[in-house]
Amino acid sequence: MALMEPVDLCGIELAHPVINASGTFDAIAARRAFGDALAEQFPFAAFVSKTVTLAPREGNPPPRLWELAAGMINSIGLPNKGLERYLSEDLPELTGLLPVPLVVNVMGFSIDEVAQLVSAFAEREEVAALELNVSCPNVETGLMMGAEPGEVSALLERVRPLTAKPLIVKLTPNATDVAAVARAAEDAGASAISLINTIRGMALDPRSGEPWLGGVTGGISGPAVRAAALAQVYSVSRAVKIPIVGMGGIQSGQNALDLLRSGATVVAVGTESFRDPAAGALVARELAGLAANSDVSFLT
Question: Do the beta carbons of residue 216 and residue 63 sit within 8 Å?
Fold first, then answer.
């Protein structure tokens, strides 16, 4: 990766501009599978955790996955141990194995829940930044937090004073005007924006004609959303001045380069890591090669 300059993501220096998308790479499981080699050849310049919620979640009932011709639909449902066990079990283990900065993704079903999560991580030196997953309904208002500029503003106004750590707001693509939501996040104190999250979709059982997924609908990801990701990153990059983490269907260095040229500061590999756990390293190597042979003003 020496061919690329380090990248600054809201004050966090990254060795290169490739990180992982939340929930698509389990560093703890990868350590069990690959041993110490994981730390020596970690595929990402920062590690974004799977989503942490206040209370434990079992996730959606199975089946949870449906393969598409160009990606997949997942209805995982954010299973996790909850805040208390994440702090006591996962965070110490991640701190011991990660050779890169840790970004913790958090989600709450109300502004109060998000505030509790942010407060819990505010003083943890092991955590470099927080990613706020606002692709969920606010139980207090019934509105999707990340789909309404007012909801995002209210959330940031509450949690921004709780920590000096960078707050990366992960937006839903299922909004009428994603750029307007991004501007609202920036105005209310967001440090960076990440997008796109999955696009809502569903699949039918070919025999019964009933919904296949246990959660009925799920999130489309992979190459199928790449064009949507390019369009939304391009639009948001012209609406805000803060950094952007771009993601959506990255399979190669060229795909990463396209998102960077569309306005992203760094890119995140997601679904491709399910097919190949080393995909992040491959994308970074290919991007380095492209950077050495093209206009790389976005990296300098």
Answer: no
Question: Shortest CA distance to 46 belongs to which of 63, 25, 60, 71?
Answer: 25
Question: Which tokens hold the place of 152?
Answer: 């995002």
pLDDT > 70: what percent of the chain? 94
CA end-to-end span of the chain:
14
Q: How far apart are CA 157 and CA 64, in angstroms?
A: 35
Q: How wide is the angle at C-alpha 123 spanned by C-alphas 18 and 116, nearest 5°?
A: 90
pTM for this one?
0.94
**CA distances (Å), 177 to each of 138, 196, 232, 262, in order?**
18, 13, 10, 18
Query: Could you state, in order of their start, the residue ranges of all structural domains in the chain?
Result: 7-60+78-199+221-299
| Nearest residue to 296 via CA among 15, 1, 5, 2 | 5
β partners of residue 80: 57
Tokens encoding 278: 């080393």
User: Tell me: the pLDDT tens digits for 19-66?
Assistant: 999 999 999 999 888 887 777 789 999 999 999 999 999 999 999 999
The amino acid at residue 145 is M
Q: Which regions of the chain does DSSP assign to beta strands (E)?
A: 7-9, 12-14, 18-20, 47-48, 65-68, 71-74, 102-106, 129-133, 167-170, 192-195, 199-202, 217-221, 244-247, 266-269
Q: Which amino acid is at 129?
A: A
| CATH code reported for the domain at 7-60+78-199+221-299 | 3.20.20.70
Q: Which residues are catalytic?
A: 136
